[in-house]
Amino acid sequence: MKLTFYGGAKSVTGTCYLLEDKQVKILIDCGLVQGSRVAEKENYKPFSFNPKEINYVFITHGHLDHVGRLPKLYRDGFRGLIFGTYPTRDFSELILYDSQSILEREAKSMRTKTIYKESDIRGVMELFHGCDYGEKIKLNGNLTLNFKDAGHILGSAIIEVSFGDKKIVFSGDLGNPSSSILKSTEWVEGADYLIMESLYGDRLYNGNNKKIVLERILEDIIGKGGVIMIPAFAIERTQEILYELNELVENRRIPRIPVFLDSPLSIEATAIYKRYSYYYNESAKDLIKSGDALFNFPGLRLTRTKQESMSINDAPAPKVIIAGSGMMEGGRIWHHLRRYLPDNKNVLLVVSYQAPGSLGRRLLDGAQEIEIFNEKIPVRASVQKIDGYSAHADQQQLLNFARQAKKGLKKVFLTQGEESASRVLASLIQDNLGVEAIVPGIGDIFNL
Fold this sequence. Notes:
By secondary structure, the protein is of the alpha/beta class. The protein folds into 2 domains: 2-203 and 391-447, Ribonuclease Z/Hydroxyacylglutathione hydrolase-like (Metallo-beta-lactamase, Chain A, 4-Layer Sandwich); 210-389, Rossmann fold (3-Layer(aba) Sandwich). The chain contains 13 helices and 22 strands. The strands form 4 sheets. Strands 6-5-4-3-2-1-22 form a 7-stranded mixed sheet.
């Protein structure tokens, strides 16, 4: 067997791995490269393999950096089968249609053809087969596919690929065990090779209780009569924040104030969360049984249209605004940053990973001024961060995952992280577990 890294190597986004032998070719994920633009120039380049020769695509989860080039793959000739969990299938369809118009605009600005069209998305979804955790699927002779719960977002999966008695495991993005909604990450055993994410391979979360920190920030803002802006990814981060606000409001730990969910994509994603409540952990299921609507509480307002979004300006402070995009590279959060960043009574609360070069990273790094809509905006609002809401495992959690899989493990390949973070984790795995840990680069090939 041969493993080639075509994306997500020494970088966080654009995950795409090719696993093949003489009989079958399998892609693990096919994501967009993301950074300072929704789609970077790399996404417009031809694939380094022939899409027509790919038999299967296995999807870990429905984030754009894992599924965003599937329609391009289809457009270039892929007609095999795609497998992912049922929520992953639904999220993929939602996010691909949502991003298509953005990609068209960016293609025009770059004076190039768009990566794909809506017809290509329809073609992808016709090939997409949903399945459940633990449902072992036999394919093409001695090939078996199995999904385990990664605990990252709803439906996220660890992919186990077995060729006879050999097992290769792709972790996808591993979740943070402190999730209020999802089950904890499942362990894997009996793997010969482990391809594992390493986003937070060089850092630990602080020990603060995330809900208490959120409560204190909210109390402070309410006392000042300010505005709290929360840029959040539409899938998982938004639902986690809504869940926490629901508990704080309904238990009267904070006063009732207007909370605006200002993201049509987040509203649609939350509907998918509601559809698959049987994926939740026991605590969340118990709340539902008690009659609690996890993502709805007094004061919450959903603003789908542009006019509804603009009306947020008329609502008096204090108020909370949850809006996309998560890295502040566009979307409705720009309008709120433009209006509220210049006021020191306000807070920008960062609860998501911010890629190098993104506007969010610049603000976290202490930018005193930013440019939005060709206008210079002074940054006087407080910029604060809560790490605990990350949907990713931290260094210790990643090390624990590798430790559980240690028996019989020949090699670990560390991906989906900045190179510095991957190398820190590689050293820890080799020193603590005695397993060879490799940080591959784009185009690197390994014989398994």
